[in-house]
């Protein structure tokens, strides 16, 4: 299955994004193998830095570093997928400014909702940053009437355990962009969240470095 063949934005109604940077994951994926849905913020300013771009894209570099920090030896996107981890973005178009409007997050969450539904075996949601947390909360509120992740700073709420229909939900920090390389405290927390998320799945391919 190619996710880009299953979901798409047809209207492009959002005003504060760059439609020329619209990206939906395009590799072949076996939906039943995916156990963890890792949701980042938005596509990069350069499409060549997207997670699934050929070569050594920047967003993949920092994501691999995050897994390595967690004690998980991976060096390619294929290896991450083989662990049962599917990575996507909450917003499918590029950012035009630092913040993304609430309206855009809510609108794009409708696409993300369809995307998440493609993977029936999801056991864990890794929400990387405020935008992905807000997007998934919109989805869950539409489905159940309630948010899963409460408001508040991530560092204050992340130690609590959250669940949606028996699936573990981790509110974490963004693992992409140049800030990831310099914010050591957030890197440590991201690594902790990834490690705990991986330990909570039944992926036979998972091995943590001792």
Tell me about this structure:
The structure is a single chain. The protein is globular. It has helices at residues 3-6, 58-69, 77-82, 102-116, 130-144, 154-157, 178-182, 184-199, and strands at 17-18, 36-40, 85-89, 94-95, 124-128, 162-164, 167-172. It has eight helices and seven strands. The longest helix is centred in the last third of the chain and has 16 residues, at 184-199. β6 and β7 (167-172) form a beta hairpin. Helix content is 37%, strand content 13%. α2 crosses α8 (184-199) and α4 (102-116) crosses α5 (130-144). The protein has 210 residues and is α/β, with parallel strands linked by helices. It has a single domain, classed as Uracil-DNA glycosylase-like domain (Uracil-DNA Glycosylase, subunit E), CATH 3.40.470. It has a five-stranded mixed beta sheet, with helices on both faces.
What is the structure about, briefly put?
By secondary structure, the chain is an alpha/beta fold. The protein has helices at 3-6, 58-69, 77-82, 102-116, 130-144, 154-157, 178-182, 184-199, and strands spanning 17-18, 36-40, 85-89, 94-95, 124-128, 162-164, 167-172. The chain has one domain: 3-Layer(aba) Sandwich (Uracil-DNA Glycosylase, subunit E).
Write the layout of secondary structure elements.
Layout: H1 3-6, E1 17-18, E2 36-40, H2 58-69, H3 77-82, E3 85-89, E4 94-95, H4 102-116, E5 124-128, H5 130-144, H6 154-157, E6 162-164, E7 167-172, H7 178-182, H8 184-199
Parallel strand pairs: 2-3, 2-5, 5-7
Antiparallel strand pairs: 1-4, 6-7
Helix pairs in contact: 2-8, 4-5
